[in-house]
Every structure is written in structure tokens, then in C-alpha cells.
Amino acid sequence: MSAPSSIKETNAPADARYECQDCNRGFSSSSKLQSHCSKHMSVLRTRFGSVVLDFQVTSSNHVLCRCGDMYDAEAFMLNHKHRCLPCIEEAASMRLRSESAQRAVAEKKDLSVDVSVALPPSSPAPPAVQIRVLRPRSGAISRENPLKKIGLLVHESTGLLICLFCQRVLTAQDIRRHYESGRKYALGKPHPKPDREDINAAFHYLRANPIKVNTIAKAKKWVGSLRGKAIPRVAFLPVYAVNKCGVCGYISDDKGTMSSHINSNHRGYSQSQVWTTALAQKLFSQMIAKYIEVCDH
């Protein structure tokens, strides 16, 4: 992609060989030009789940991404930001650091206990004694989240376990098989294979901290309960426009399939009465559900 303002050699004197295309000012070196270009940039703030990241935007409305490339602002918001692993990983890291800091603050809070010594009525009461008691917490030693170490993230709004490489929802019982199958992730590169100790640590962590969908059977039951309902979308995954049945909530990306569904299951309705559109994401493998309807809140 091009730089914020492209470097352009001109016929100007040697001390102005590089020209800013935004203001036509000349500079003697490319580094001075790059420093100057920051003055033409504004900031785009966009949300990744509960985390907000800032991105520089040039006067030509191009966004400078964490991956080092530049994208048209509209294309960045609609497509690239949902697939950019550096952005997704930075947002996940910031959220985990924030949660760690909040836990540390909670652990430092003291409980004040007033203790008074029983004395005869004639004796003056002593001043109250403040005893500092540490707040008890489960898991006295705080360690790094083992899910993050192997590229997993629990989505805050839905409680779903997501592989950042495949960009798919996993069940807890799927973790070992998932990493040992050598599958490809969304960008077409080899899926990293963590050490077995790290995989086991994540597996045991999820047994101690159960998630909403921890078995395939529960995943299918949960998906079935969503028919006609939308869940909060996962901010870093792509969103698709799909066809939706207004009677039962069935969704499909194929018009022929939707037409057959309405004719077979909802006789007496015209297609124009019940055929609507919705937003959806590909969260699970197709053996569970190809699409899940989502919303922005």
C-alpha cells in the first residue's frame, strides 16, 4: 500500500527533493517527509469487543493498520479490521491486562475490623484497633491465562470460546483434537501447534472455569435455542448479509434454499410476506451451524 503521502522525487533543488502531496511542501529527506505527514493525519477510534484501538487516518481517508498496510477507511471498517490478527491480538492482550489490573486492585483492598477489649464498666474504653485483613480470593497465585497462550479467547458478550487463528468457536472437549488435526485457519496459513503441556493447561483451565458451550451436544442445543434470536456480534469476525425466514427465524445464504424452506414449511404465506434479510457470522463449523444471526448491541 502507499505511504500516507507518497514520496515523490521532483526537479526542485537538492534540499527539497521530496514533496508532500497534501500541501506540496518540499523536504530534503524521506524521513523528514514522513515526520511531516503525521500533521495531516487524524485518528480513527474503533471498538474490538470491550477494547477501543486508535488508528491514524490520512487526509486521503486511508487508515494505517497495525499490520503495516494502509486501507481505505470504509474497507478497513467493513472487512480488514475483522481479519487483522495483529489488531485482534493487541485488543485481546489489552483486555487481559485490564482484567489483571482490576484483579490486582481487588486483592489489595483491605477489610477493616473493629476490635474492642472487654473492660469493667469503670474503665474507659480504648480506641478502636484497625486490623488489616487480606480479602480472600480463589486461586491465590495469579498466572497468565493459559487460553491466550495457545490463541484462544472467551468472547465477553456471549461467553463463546473462539480460536483467533481459525476464527471459529470451539467447545472445551474439542481443544485437543482441534490443535492436533493440523487444520488451516482463515488466512490460509498453517495452524500453529502449541506444546502438549500448554494444550492440557488450557483444557484443565476450562474444566475449572466452564464456558457456555463446552460440548458439541450443548453447542447444538444452544444453536437450536437461538432460532429467530440474534446474539451480540463478535467484533473481530466478518459479518455477512443472509436471507431470513420471518416465521421461524431460519437463515441461509442461498435464495433457492430459502425459497424451498418457505414453500415446504410455511404454506399459505407468500415469500414476500416472510422473506427478510439479517446479519450473521460464521461462528461454528458447518456440522453445527453455518451461520448465527448477530446484532450490534
From TrEMBL:
Superkingdom of origin organism: Eukaryota
Keyword hit for Lipid biosynthesis: no
Record's keyword terms, sorted: Metal-binding, Zinc, Zinc-finger
Secretion signal span: none
Annotated C2H2-type domain residues: 18-40
SMART domains in the record: ZnF_C2H2
Gene Ontology molecular-function annotations: zinc ion binding
Protein name: C2H2-type domain-containing protein
Organism: Linderina pennispora
